[in-house]
Design goal:
By secondary structure, the protein is α/β, with parallel strands linked by helices. About 40% of the residues lie in helices and about 15% in strands. It is built from nine helices and eight strands.
Length: about 220
């Protein structure tokens, strides 16, 4: 087996939360700063922590904006998210083949588990890392290093997978190879700038990369 452990980002990688995130930012920001941002401008806020993003928008009121974001996001979560093709099937196949699985997310633990539970995949993961578990979020190496330590695998046998620069850089900063996903909202050309070792066109590509028989 080429890799013993796979580390996944969550938003935009395993669950399509892109519309939810953009609509939530728009709901919070547009009434307060009319015309400052277009819909595509909110793309840059996908990846960084909420406090980073809202500090850029309004440093004096960033914490209040984060709280407002979380309230609206939670209330509209289930209605605005969709599943990417083949994700659950591939995760099950990987798990059955003995691959260790982890989630490494910048989300808060409660909202991360909300999404995992909605998909019915929580129990497929050996390790789940949220922003609550670390001092520094991606692209700092700490989240990836924490996941690998808890999995008990060698860095050379782990692969970080995500839809954003933070995921690829977070993996590389931790000394771990990385894969981008072509279904990233920012596009695979954007991800290619960060030199991931792999680019997944479909979730099923992971089965070949890892060396697992495909039943998905």
């Amino acid at each position: 087996m080429n890799y013993e452990a796979l580390l996944f980002d969550f938003d935009g990688t395993l669950l399509n939360t892109n519309d939810l995130i953009i609509e939530t930012f728009a709901h919070v920001i547009d009434p307060k700063f009319p015309g400052r941002y277009k819909r595509e401008d909110y793309l840059k806020f996908i990846g960084p922590s909420l406090i980073e993003s809202f500090t850029e928008v309004d440093p004096l009121n960033a914490e209040a904006l984060v709280a407002e974001y979380r309230t609206w996001n939670a209330e509209n979560h289930d209605a605005l998210v969709t599943e990417f093709p083949n994700v659950k099937e591939v995760l099950i196949a990987l798990r059955e083949a003995g691959v260790r699985l982890a989630v490494v997310s910048t989300k808060r633990g409660d909202t991360l588990h909300k999404g995992l539970n909605l998909m019915g995949i929580t129990d497929l993961f050996d390790v789940i890392i949220s922003q609550d578990d670390v001092t520094h979020v991606k692209p700092h190496p700490e989240p990836v290093e924490t996941a690998i330590a808890r999995l008990g695998v060698d860095k050379s046998k782990a692969l970080m997978i995500g839809d954003n620069s933070h995921d690829i850089l977070g993996g590389h900063n931790a000394g771990v190879k990385a894969a981008g996903v072509a279904w990233s909202y920012k596009g695979k050309d954007y991800l290619a700038q960060y030199n991931p070792e792999y680019m997944l066109e479909d979730m099923r590509d992971l089965l070949q990369i890892v060396g697992v028989e495909s039943h998905a």
